[in-house]
Amino acid sequence: MLKNLIINNIALIDRLDIDFQTGLSVLSGETGSGKSIIIDSLAFVLGERADKALIKYGEESAEVTALFEVETDCPVLAKLTEYGYGDDAEILLSRKMSVSGKNEIRINGKTATLSMLKDICSELADIFGQGQHLSLLDERNQLSVLDAFCDFRGADTQLRSVWYPKLSEVNRQLKSFGGSETERERLLDILKFQIDELKAADLDEKEENELIATHKRLVNAEKIASAVNVAADSLGSELGAINRLSDAVSSLRQISGMEDSAAALADRLQTARIEIEDVSASLDSLLEAVDFSPSEADRMEARLEKIRQLKRKYGGSVAEALEFLKNAETQYNNLLNSSARIAELNAEKQAILKKMFELSAVKSEERKRTADKLSQRIMRELDDLGMRGTRFEVEFECAEAFESYANNPSADGYDRVRFMMSANVGEPLKPLSKVISGGEMSRFMLAVKNITALAEKIPTMVFDEIDTGISGNMAQMVANKLADVSHNKQNGYQCIVITHLPQICAMADCNLYINKYEKDGKTFTAVNRLTTLEQRSEEVARLMGSVGQHALVNARELIEWSDNYKKSI
């Protein structure tokens, strides 16, 4: 059960610290006072979607903490142990969100992921909001409701977690071979074009680098030629460095007999002259290289553009284009020789589909058995809720043939179901969405939730305005049912209910009055526990819409009747 809920900075709530107890806890108050915000806060700490819009205006973050206490046989304890959060009967949950989008989750003081939180909380509490009326009317969701009551004895797990993934893998491999024969031929044509295009281009990383360097020289050919000509002329002309060095060597040779160092200096100059002659020759070669013909320049530009085009198409670089070619050739060869492997995969796929169809049949049989039992239980619950004579059935579409299932296999099996109901004696069964009224829908959902909670041993059930469309005697029957399920010593659970009905308010074991007030120009939500008979009577009278002393007398009578009813359970 939920023992304590602490809410910080959620919507109109600055801080609330609410203690809950066993039995039936009722939240009441004026419309817009913040009742549903409390339920939204509980849903948040239980793992529902975090909406930053819930953070109180002007605050940077919001946090909700919930303390649960469970019985020693509660299934959630096994999950806590599995995740490493201990096996204490008291479970502390904390979740914080900030305007920056950061989400912080803790279970028993240790950090946790959202998936862990959802998995654990799925067996701690179940919240029934107003939107679930519409959800259950959608026939696409009705199969999931039925499955919640089924015991597939592993068939469901095998179908969903073993065979469906195997089918996906075989389909992935078949897709890699091009799918159908027509698609495979189309893929072969595409691959052949790509291979031929890349092979004809004869790409080479070294060639690309050389072309880029040559192209750079080509773009700057005039400037390069001018500079090389000046350098060559400075070295090789009549008055250039080479001739001047030759004159210097000759002059030094003439005085070598007179000056001992002259010969050595002449030798050094001679060496320099030889090196400069080599530089001069290199300059001549460079000058010839710079002399591009227009046709050569066009050819080079076209080649570079072709390389750029192929790089864009096949990976962004020559190396990646060559890797693409290698993979394309491998895939092409595999496709050409794929007939045998495709035949193997198709045979494997058929075997998997047959196994899936067998498991779907097992699931279908269990669904049909459960559907009969579920129908009887729902009708008994509805009878308790004042809908006597109501008939309810789960209608199955005709069993699907293997060929149809193989064309559209599903991890859910092949069943298509529809909830059928007749609320009045003598009326034929019709789809739930066509015949059920708002008040009947509320009672129907209460019936389904009662059965679900008892089957799954969920200790806490929360109902956000279960009283939609209900009044008069029907309201009293719903109040009685909530009292029954929350006081049953064997199968009872804690009920937390938001209501506008005096009958449900009077039946409460714990009355929490929600109101809002203004302070310093801001609006806040507060929770007051109604502990005295006078306080409870005033709230019941308010919900009755009556005023005066007679209203209080009627309210006290309703509370007294409700207390006696609970004692009789």
Notable characteristics:
single chain, 569 residues, alpha/beta, six-stranded antiparallel sheet, six-stranded mixed sheet, 58% helix
Structural overview:
- It is a single chain.
- The protein has 21 helices and 15 strands.
- With 569 residues, it is of the alpha/beta class.
- A 6-stranded antiparallel beta sheet has the order 2-1-4-5-6-7, covered by helices on one side.
- β5 and β6 form a beta hairpin.
Quick synopsis:
The protein has 569 residues and is an alpha/beta fold. The chain contains 21 helices and 15 strands. Strands 2-1-4-5-6-7 form a six-stranded antiparallel β-sheet, with helices on one face.
The number of distinct helices, counting runs of at least 4 residues, comes to 21
Low-pLDDT residue intervals, each spanning 5 or more residues? none
Helix coverage percent of residues? 55-70%
Name the average pLDDT: 86
Main β-sheet: number of strands, strand sense, barrel status? 6 strands, antiparallel
Intertermini distance: 20 Å
As a percent range, the share of strand residues is: 15-25%
Shape: elongated
Q: State the total count of DSSP E strands.
A: 15
- The side-by-side strand order for the widest beta sheet comes to 2-1-4-5-6-7
